[in-house]
Design brief:
The chain is mainly beta. It has a domain at 1-152. It is built from 3 helices and 23 strands. The protein has helices at residues 3-15, 24-27, 107-110; strands spanning 60-69, 75-79, 85-90, 95-104, 114-120, 123-129, 143-152, 156-161, 166-169, 174-180, 183-188, 192-198, 201-206, 210-216, 219-224, 228-234, 237-242, 246-252, 255-260, 264-269, 274-279, 283-284, 290-292. It has a 12-stranded mixed beta sheet. It has an 11-stranded mixed beta sheet with strand order 5-6-2-8-10-12-14-16-18-20-22. It is globular, with a radius of gyration of 20 Å. The chain starts with a helix and ends with a strand.
């Protein structure tokens, strides 16, 4: 993980609470994407439950909504800031539906919490927009957008997110670049590439290969048809039911591997035990802390 990403995480940890709420003075830098129509929508007809920022920080809230038709072959790019992100792939759906819960400690900031959908050149861009701010008054203002998104099942996605929990179900090929917060990926119908700063990562079901780079937090990986490559800083790693090779570079924390159809390779293991069972291919792991059957 590079110096710039570590510096970003330091700022994020200083400003982001456990629920992923966004201290807008510290993290947006006063930049809001321009050139979009950011209409204030009426409450959603989708009737999708929304998360709530813990600790009573949401003094003002509103619902934002956007819809765009798609053929299913487009790439969906998501640029989210703080707050929760839930994406569900729905069989037979011909559009992208977004419902967002905007939450702010100041009423003036609420109007600037918006979502937009822009389509063109074979892709759709979903953007979350935050208030214009001045200065670095950490802790003085909080604003967040919890996004609930429905897309055609198997749609390819590219997700950039700063903080807050994330769950993506039924995507196609998937790339995630996340600062902090837990990540859950289920039933991905293509290769998955995740670059995560901190927070637990759970991946359950990938029809393809998985590449995962993680700074800290526990990892649980199950049911991947292809190869798995993990570069982990710290935290336990639990992997099972892999159809190809499993390669793990680990800084610290225990490693458990079960039912691996290919080779098991651990070229780097800083500390922690390595246990494995039912590995069909070759095993190449450090002798220290090694236990296998």
């Amino acid at each position: 993980m590079g110096v710039l990403k570590l510096a970003y995480l330091f700022v994020a940890y200083s400003a982001v609470g456990a629920g992923g709420e966004f201290v807008v003075d510290a993290l947006t830098g006063g930049h809001v994407a321009s050139g979009h129509a950011m209409a204030a929508y009426e409450p959603s007809a989708f009737d999708v439950p929304m998360r709530h920022v813990p600790g009573g920080a949401c003094d003002f809230e509103a619902t934002r909504e956007a819809v765009v038709g798609v053929s299913g072959s487009e790439l969906l790019r998501i640029v989210a800031g703080s707050g929760g992100l839930d994406v569900e792939g729905v069989e037979g759906l011909g559009e992208i539906r977004v419902v967002a819960r905007a939450c702010a400690t100041r009423e003036a900031d609420l109007d600037q919490l918006q979502v937009t959908l822009d389509s063109g050149s074979g892709e759709v861009l979903l953007s979350a927009h935050y208030p214009d701010v001045d200065g670095w008054r950490i802790g003085s203002r909080v604003a967040s957008l919890d996004l609930k998104v429905q897309v055609p099942r198997g749609m390819a996605m590219d997700v950039e997110d700063s903080s807050g929990s994330m769950e993506i179900v039924g995507s196609g090929a998937l790339r995630i670049d996340d600062g902090s917060g837990s990540i859950t990926v289920r039933d991905a119908l293509g290769d998955v590439d995740i670059d995560d700063g901190s927070g637990s990562v759970d991946v359950f079901g990938v029809r393809g290969d998985l590449v995962l780079e993680d700074g800290s937090g526990s990892l649980e990986i199950r049911d991947v048809t292809g190869a798995v490559r993990i570069d982990d800083g710290s935290g336990g790693v639990d992997v099972s039911d892999i159809g190809g090779d499993l390669t793990i570079r680990d800084g610290s924390g225990s490693i458990s591997a079960r039912r691996i159809e290919g080779n098991l390779i651990v070229p780097v293991d800083g500390s922690g035990s390595v246990t494995y069972t039912d590995v069909a291919g070759a095993v190449d792991v450090p002798s220290r802390g090694r236990r296998g059957r």
